[in-house]
Amino acid sequence: MFVTDPHPAKLSGWLIAWGEQLDVRTVNIGDGETITDGMVAGYLAKYATKATEATGHTSRRLDAETIDIYADPDGTHPERLVDACWSLGAAGGRWRSLRRWAHMLGFGGHFLTKSRHYR
Q1: Alpha carbon distance 24, 70 (integer Å)
Q2: Hey, how many other C-beta atoms are within 10 angstroms of the C-beta on 51?
Q3: Residues 6 or more apart in contact with residue 95 via CB below 8 angstroms
Q4: Are 26 and 40 in contact (CB under 8 A)?
Q5: pTM of this prediction?
Q6: DSSP codes, 11-58
Q7: CB contact set of 44 (below 8 Å; sequence gap of 6+)
């Protein structure tokens, strides 16, 4: 579980938890065992194959003219996430970037590390 930073709409932040669909896999085996290229490829493929298009979303950023197409506080789970990003981002400050990444359900990073090495 995780509690977000404070927000003007909820000063204590929001509790975030993950459901049963969470699939955590350890890449670093430890104990001196070698991580194989296949292990790393499998881990990366898990994230590289995910996209929001499967949920009916676009890979383009949303704006005031397009937000109503994808955001609905009473809609599907992805529509609610887009709406939450847009609404929370309206507060500005640390939350502002949520609007920029609403089309990606709030995730503003790259699915793959930019590190030149894996360990």
Answers
A1: 29
A2: 11
A3: 7, 88, 89
A4: no
A5: 0.55
A6: TT--EE---TT-----S---TTPPPPHHHHHHHHHHHHT--SGGGT--
A7: 112
Closest by CA to 79, choosing from 90, 92, 69, is 69
What does DSSP assign to residue 90?
T
Strand 15-16 versus strand 2-3 pairing type = antiparallel
d(C-alpha 77, C-alpha 101), whole Å: 16
Per the structure block, which two tokens stand in for 66? Answer: 């397009």
pLDDT tens for the chain, residues 1 to 119: 788 889 888 899 988 877 666 666 666 666 667 777 777 777 777 666 665 555 566 678 899 999 999 899 999 888 898 999 999 999 888 888 899 888 887 777 665 555 555 44
Question: What size, in residues, is the chain?
Answer: 119
Chain center to CA of 102 = 9
Three-state DSSP state, 2: strand
Give backbone dihedrals phi and psi of 3, rounded to 5 degrees, phi first: -115, 130
Nearest to 70 by CA among 85, 83, 61: 83
